[in-house]
Design a protein that fits this description.
Layout (H helix, E strand, L loop, with lengths): L2 E3 L5 E3 L5 H13 L10 E3 L2 H9 L2 H11 L7 H20 L5 E3 L5
């Protein structure tokens, strides 16, 4: 299972999905730009994605969850809750001038 984290120890566990692929999808939906992610086991999320998560309101999170949930065979409410947790983590990272990372420990 993968984990999203910031250096102070706050983290959010990823669900049963490919975190690299999810980051690309979220980045596309929020920013309409595709950015390939490194194949490293730990990498920083794109700054533009973190900025969008930081300022995302519930309506925007709703749209992203609707777009992403079917791609990972996840229910809308579960996807919305997960993205909301990530948005909270992104806000913490931004407020501390930190990066938001993902550690990919295994592929689903």
């Amino acid at each position: 299972m993968s984990t999203f984290f910031i250096r102070d120890g706050d983290s959010v566990a990823a669900g049963d999905y490919d975190a690299r692929e999810a980051v690309v999808v979220w980045h596309q939906v929020f920013n309409e730009v595709w950015e390939p992610q490194p194949q490293d086991s730990v990498f920083a999320l794109p700054d533009a994605l973190v900025a969008q998560l930081d300022k995302a309101d519930p309506a925007r999170m709703h749209d992203v969850a609707l777009s992403w949930a079917p791609l990972v065979d996840m229910g809308f409410h579960e996807a919305f809750a997960h993205l909301s947790e990530l948005a909270t983590l992104a806000r913490t990272a931004v407020s501390q001038s930190e990066k938001l990372y993902v550690e990919v420990t295994e592929q689903p």
